[in-house]
Amino acid sequence: MRVGYNPYKDQILEGTYHHQVVIPVYIPNQEGYFKDSFTILKLCLESLFNTIHQKTFVTIVNNGSEKLVSHYLDLLLKENKIQELVHTENIGKLNAILKGLAGNDIELVTISDADVLFLPNWQMETMKVFKEVPKAGVVGIVPQFKMYESNCGNVLFDTLFNSELRFVPVKNKAALIRFYDSIGWDRNYNQDYLAYNLALEINSELNVLIGSGHFVATYKKDIFETIITYIGYKMGGNSEGYLDSLPLKKDYWRVTTQDNYAYHMGNTLEDWMGTLVVLKTKQEVVHYNFENKKRVHPILYWMKNRLFVKFISSKLLVKLFLKWKKLPKAIIEKY
């Protein structure tokens, strides 16, 4: 029988964190593909701990990893280096992410793979973009090739006649090369991609690149106010498309910092990873109290993200767009 009154009944939850980081981890063994994954995970988390402010809530979802990895994560929780640890069998990457998103009301959430090496100031630069670009709903920190071609119909629609939308020189060519090395590409891609990125000038001190990659990005949490509870793929399928579609339904833009603030390590340990020590730095705590947006009307969604995208993707209009937005004439033909 119950005796007495639970002192926590009807008590209002008060949020103490301003930023959440969710990282799903799947390391079933340390052989073959996963030979270096445990070491890379440790580098990832150490770089994270050294580059976040004290109001950051770190969630790790252990998605069916071996016991050695599980024990390591348990120790991090015991040492208060992470705030939440979920152990589960391998339920798939996105299902693991969905578990990490539930149960809190933190205004920003960074979703990251377990092989990201975070660099100093990534969190501050991300917050700067959200502050200066109210329509930003997804902010990446690793520039990539031609990101504007994916899930950016609404951004291009909204800024098409803005003279501040134009191609600008790549700010960190070495980091861009390193990213494509990390995903196993040969360097026989179009070298012009290393020269220019499509950007929007926000002010004299801030440019943002149009579009964002998937492996590490920060989202406004209100994007996930209604989420499904199950995706039927371990990876691939419609899982990444689900995360891509949610921001568009609220007409949020996908953008990326102009400079590079993280490295993708992949599954193979390389010498530079161990030598690149990310030192602990004091980070400013910022809280913006973003206003939640309503879902955009379906007709407007269709116009921006379906009809407009199909229209502007025609071969003739693509070339006109590249010329109009100041891509040098000499490289338009093959860009």
Short description:
The longest helix has 15 residues, at 298-312. The strands form two sheets. Strands 3-2-1-4-10-6-11-9-8-7 form a ten-stranded mixed sheet, with helices on both faces. It has a two-stranded antiparallel sheet with strand order 5-12. It has 335 residues and is of the alpha/beta class.
Order of neighbouring strands in the sheet with most strands: 3-2-1-4-10-6-11-9-8-7
Contiguous low-pLDDT stretches (5 residues minimum) are: none
In total, the number of strands is 12
Biggest sheet: strands, sense, closure? 10 strands, mixed
Please report the first level of CATH classification, the CATH class.
Answer: Alpha Beta
Radius of gyration: 21 Å
- Relative helix content: 25-40%
- The best one-word shape is globular
Q: What's the total helix number?
A: 11
Distance between termini? Answer: 73 Å
- CATH topology tier name: Spore Coat Polysaccharide Biosynthesis Protein SpsA, Chain A
Beta-strand residue percentage: 15-25%
- CATH architecture level-2 label: Alpha-Beta Complex
Estimate nothing, just give the exact number of structural domains.
1
**SSE succession:** EHEHEHEEHEHEHEEEHEEHHHH
Pfam family, one: Glycos_transf_2
GO molecular function: transferase activity
Protein name: Glycosyl transferase family 2
InterPro entries: Glyco_trans_2-like, Nucleotide-diphossugar_trans
